[in-house]
Amino acid sequence: MLPTKIYEPLPYSYMLAGLISMVLLPSLLGMMSGTLLFMAGALVWIVRSEHRREDDVFAERKKGPVPFWGYELLPFVCLLSALIIFTMPFSQLYYPSAVILLIVGVQLWLTRNLQRRHRRALTN
Questions:
Q1: Are 45 and 11 in contact (CB under 8 A)?
Q2: What sign has the CA pseudo-torsion 95, 100, 103, 108?
Q3: In angstroms, rounded to a whole number, what is the distance separating the alpha carbons of residues 101 and 25?
Q4: d(C-alpha 42, C-alpha 73), whole Å
């Protein structure tokens, strides 16, 4: 088993590696690999968050109009879309939309992170 100091920041490391590869490798292959790394980190973060939750809201969300994975991935998709708009050679007229997506993604992620009650991770 990995030590906690390595295990806990892994999803953030995946997302950061994806963002760095998207910025430093502006080719299509760099964008695709960066997107996959970023989404892998997001999925790991979501699975860990759901596993550690103490409040049982999964049953309530199951009845809602938005599917579970659509709801959970929304902040990460907003952040990823903003980064793609900033790094791709689009017109500068798209930048306000990217800023809005960035703000919405960060706000959704922080709100969800603050409102969830999690069990403490095991420490090594």
A1: yes
A2: negative
A3: 22
A4: 7
| Domain assignments of the chain as residue spans, ordered by start | 4-115
CA distance 90 to 3: 43
pLDDT digits (tens, 9 = 90+) for 5-62: 888 889 999 999 999 998 898 788 988 999 999 999 999 988 888 777 766 655 555 5
Q: Which residues make beta-bridge pairs with 53?
A: 118
pLDDT digits (tens, 9 = 90+) for 94-110: 899 999 999 999 999 89
- Residue/partner pairs of 98-105 with CB below 8 Å, 24 or more apart: 102/78, 104/75, 104/78, 105/75, 105/76, 105/77, 105/78, 105/79, 105/81
Helices 10-24 and 68-87, interaxial angle, to 10°? 30
The answer to whether 83 touches 16, Cβ cutoff 8 Å, is no
Nearest to 109 by CA among 80, 82, 74, 85: 74
